[in-house]
């Protein structure tokens, strides 16, 4: 079993390009193509469709990708376990994260972690809640930082209750108030984070029967804030996101208070790799309840 061939197949499925997939592991495009072809011959069916714009998975390819991810995952875990037994920790850690967490939490945690474990390479994937949940389910990441969603069965560690804030442009009639009643969103122009990237805001609107005038939608928090800043409407964004815009715009606490539960999630703590378990220890030590990162 040649694990590297499976890794090239997984990378090609992710990026849709054989050249990029090969380069990720030091192979030429022809080398990557030859590796994939040999696996297709062993399997007895085509994994990819080739086209001018790159490659895409066949229906049979779609069926085997989850199994290939599991094989690669357990091979990596085995290598890390053997290294740990021999007193060495090395390997790869794949982290999924909201952008706000990747900006405000991960740099300090990773810096401290890498001081102790320089031989563990780290790959960060940023995305919305739907993409992060899928990546965790499919084994594309080892752990994710995201908000807790109802009905999901991931193992998790709750890290912070992150309050939502009303986001207003300067000069808004309520800019001088101490807080912003949720019902004040009814009937006003509103910029909404796209469903699929953020379920939490949509859930707030539904739970409190709010009916704002959805003027624009965007999957990017930064775009939403920029639209508010330029007077195109108002919005709701989490406090951790707004740390990037300190001193800009107007933020007010919501009444009643609403928040999201930010957590570190894994498919199973029992099955987590040694590198993943070590990283989780650092996260637990370094993230404070107020959302700050302790220096340890």
From TrEMBL:
Residue intervals passing through the bilayer: none
Family: Belongs to the LysR transcriptional regulatory family.
Descriptive protein name: LysR family transcriptional regulator
GO (cellular component) term, any one: cytosol
Keyword Acetylation among UniProt keywords: no
Keywords: DNA-binding, Transcription, Transcription regulation
Molecular-function GO terms, alphabetical: DNA binding; DNA-binding transcription factor activity
Annotated SUPFAM superfamilies: Periplasmic binding protein-like II, Winged helix' DNA-binding domain
Segments forming domain HTH lysR-type: 1-58
Top-rank taxon: Bacteria
């Amino acid at each position: 079993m040649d694990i590297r061939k499976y890794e090239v197949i997984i990378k090609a499925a992710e990026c849709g390009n054989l050249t990029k997939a090969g380069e990720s592991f030091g192979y030429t495009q022809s080398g990557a193509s030859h590796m994939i072809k040999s696996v297709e011959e062993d399997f007895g069916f085509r994994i990819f469709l080739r086209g001018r714009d790159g490659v895409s998975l066949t229906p049979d390819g779609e069926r085997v990708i989850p199994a290939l991810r599991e094989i690669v995952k357990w091979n990596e875990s085995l290598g890390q376990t053997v290294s740990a037994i021999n007193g060495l920790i090395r390997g790869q850690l794949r982290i999924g994260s909201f952008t706000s967490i990747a900006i405000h939490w991960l740099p300090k945690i990773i810096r401290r972690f890498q001081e102790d474990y320089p031989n563990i390479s780290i790959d960060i994937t940023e995305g919305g809640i739907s993409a992060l949940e899928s990546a965790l389910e499919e084994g594309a990441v080892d752990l994710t930082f995201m908000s807790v969603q109802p009905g999901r069965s991931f193992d998790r560690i709750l890290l912070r209750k992150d309050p939502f804030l009303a986001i207003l442009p300067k000069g808004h009639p309520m800019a001088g108030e101490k807080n912003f009643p949720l019902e004040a969103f009814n009937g006003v122009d509103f910029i909404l984070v796209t469903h699929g990237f953020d379920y939490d805001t949509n859930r707030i609107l539904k739970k409190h029967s709010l009916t704002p005038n959805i003027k624009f939608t965007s999957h990017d928090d930064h775009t939403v804030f920029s639209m508010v800043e330029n007077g195109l409407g108002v919005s709701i964004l989490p406090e951790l996101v707004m740390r990037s815009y300190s001193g800009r715009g107007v933020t007010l606490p919501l009444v009643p208070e609403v928040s999201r539960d930010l957590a570190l999630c894994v498919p199973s703590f029992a099955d987590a790799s040694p590198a993943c378990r070590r990283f989780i220890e650092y996260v637990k030590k370094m993230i404070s309840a107020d959302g700050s990162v302790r220096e340890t």
